[in-house]
Design goal:
- The chain contains 21 helices and ten strands.
- The chain is about 50% helix and about 10% strand.
- It folds into four domains: about 160 residues, Rossmann fold (3-Layer(aba) Sandwich); about 55 residues, no CATH class; about 80 residues, no CATH class; about 150 residues, Zinc Finger, Delta Prime, domain 3 (Up-down Bundle), CATH 1.20.272.10.
- It has about 475 residues and is an alpha/beta fold.
- α9 crosses α14 and α15 runs antiparallel to α20.
């Protein structure tokens, strides 16, 4: 595969751990799960073979295990495995409140004389490293610098930054080629755009698409088993001197099934392997010869399973729209579409579908509320800026607050259904109230969500009181 810029740090790490120049420890810094998983698999394949993995692999958490115990495990050689690998999560606990002088002194003491048969991998997934480091959050940048100041002298740094869009597209096409599948450039671009360069989602949907286009073509249920009326009669009449009425009673054995043409209709019955010879032996000599000759001729003409071609081994734009975009559009944006159309039954059905599709079910309700509030805020800005063209969305919505490109046109259409700013701010207030209820341990979370969807899908009633100047109190 051609080297990609976004994968350069992980590629160097994977190459280095297979050489004698491996360092005693590394810091995997960043929250890109796909790159972390890539590094972890490479470490396990190189340094922790499966036969000794139970004794050589340690997954530790600094929230539960002290750094002193981690260093003690690394310093103590294992009697059951020649090499030890320690993944240490929650590195942020080392940089919490307090000076942590004793902890850092112990780290310095260990790395001055490290165990050459041990590798420590600190996981700093509390930092988010964007594609462009100049756009890194100020707080994350401070944390990054502090980790580099304290561990940079001893540890190698592997940056798990967000993958660039162009690199993600190249990864999709080149990985597909390595597996003998052609991935159209338009399809790769649409896949990456739809999932927002989330490499973990992209890799998951990528595997699904490859299975979809590489599935072998299945024969029909009756193919090679049931003879048509003309075939049955021609096979029987060819070798039999009996009448057509007698010929129709000649059974045929096909792949463990007894097939007979009775009254012009093919009849099929299951035949155990040990009964096939019995069926044939009960026939007359002429009928037996006819059945065997027809069987040999038919089996020679049938294609074998290995000769069945794959469907197409090519992923097109239509395949991506069928397998990926339809699933995304049926979730959140279809729900907001039903809400903005005031279609209450459809909105409730989509809500239940969204909850059933999520791993957490009702426990993921706060996450769904966050996405609803975010979508209504996007619609509020679109309405205030009077955006009509999807290409103008990127000028009014800042980076990190934009929707996927495929949803831009739909969101503009939904925002135009609201007549005033008041309706959109009312929707945001309703979502905020539901969020407060969910955080107050309600008896039934589903009831809270259903009431929210019904309120959002209902036309707002005119207020019966005079508006006051205390706007903050009304909010």
């Amino acid at each position: 595969m051609q080297p990609l810029r976004s994968f350069a740090s992980t590629d160097r790490f994977i190459t280095e751990i297979a050489t004698p120049s491996i360092k005693p420890a590394y810091v995997l810094i960043g929250d890109e799960v796909f790159l972390y998983d890539r590094c972890r698999k490479a470490v396990l394949a190189t340094l922790a073979p499966e036969e000794t993995r139970d004794f050589s692999l340690h997954d530790l958490d600094l929230a539960e295990t002290s750094i002193f115990e981690v260093l003690d495990r690394a310093q103590t050689p294992s009697l059951m495995a020649p090499f030890q690998v320690l993944f240490v999560r929650n590195l942020k606990t080392l940089y919490g409140r307090g000076s942590k002088k004793e902890e850092f002194a112990a780290i310095d003491a260990y790395f001055r004389s490290p165990n050459p048969s041990a590798l420590i991998l600190f996981v700093a997934d509390h930092l988010r490293i964007p594609t462009d480091l100049r756009k890194m959050d100020y707080q994350d940048k401070e944390r990054y610098e502090r980790i580099r100041e304290t561990l940079g002298d001893w540890c190698g740094f592997v940056e798990l930054a967000r993958v660039e869009e162009s690199d993600a597209i190249k990864w999709v096409t080149t990985t597909a080629e390595s597996r003998n599948v052609k991935f159209d450039p338009d399809a790769a671009r649409e896949l990456v755009d739809a999932l927002g360069t989330d490499m973990m989602l992209i890799s998951s949907e990528f595997e699904k698409l490859l299975l979809y286009v590489s599935a072998p073509a299945r024969p029909s249920v009756n193919e090679g088993v049931i003879l048509s009326e003309g075939e049955a009669e021609s096979k029987d009449l060819r070798s039999s001197s009996t009448s057509p009425a007698n010929t129709a009673r000649v059974p045929h054995v096909r792949d463990g099934l007894i097939v007979a043409n009775v009254g012009g209709v093919a009849k099929v019955g299951e035949a155990p392997q040990d009964s096939i010879e019995i069926v044939i032996s009960t026939l007359s000599a002429v009928e037996r010869a006819s059945a065997l000759a027809a069987e040999v001729e038919k089996s020679a003409s049938l294609p074998t399973a290995s000769a069945q071609p794959l469907t197409k081994n090519r992923v097109t734009l239509g395949d991506v729209e069928t397998m990926v975009l339809a699933a995304k559009q049926r979730s959140l944006y279809e729900l907001t579409d039903a809400i903005s159309s005031k279609d209450r039954p459809r909105a409730l059905l989509l809500l239940h579908g969204l909850l059933n599709a999520s791993d957490g079910g009702e426990d993921a309700a706060i996450g769904h509320l966050y996405m609803l509030a975010r979508t209504f805020r996007q619609m509020l800005i679109i309405s205030e800026k009077n955006v009509r063209d999807p290409r103008a969305i990127w000028q009014v919505l800042w980076q990190g607050f934009r929707m996927p490109p495929f949803a831009a046109e739909d969101l503009i259409k939904q925002a135009r259904r609201y007549k005033s700013r008041r309706e959109l701010t009312r929707a945001i207030r309703l979502v905020a109230r539901a969020d407060l209820e969910l955080r107050s341990s309600p008896a039934n979370k589903l009831l809270v969500l259903e009431r929210l969807i019904l309120d959002l899908s209902t036309e707002p009633k005119p207020t019966t009181y005079e508006p006051s100047h205390q706007f903050a109190m009304e909010l």
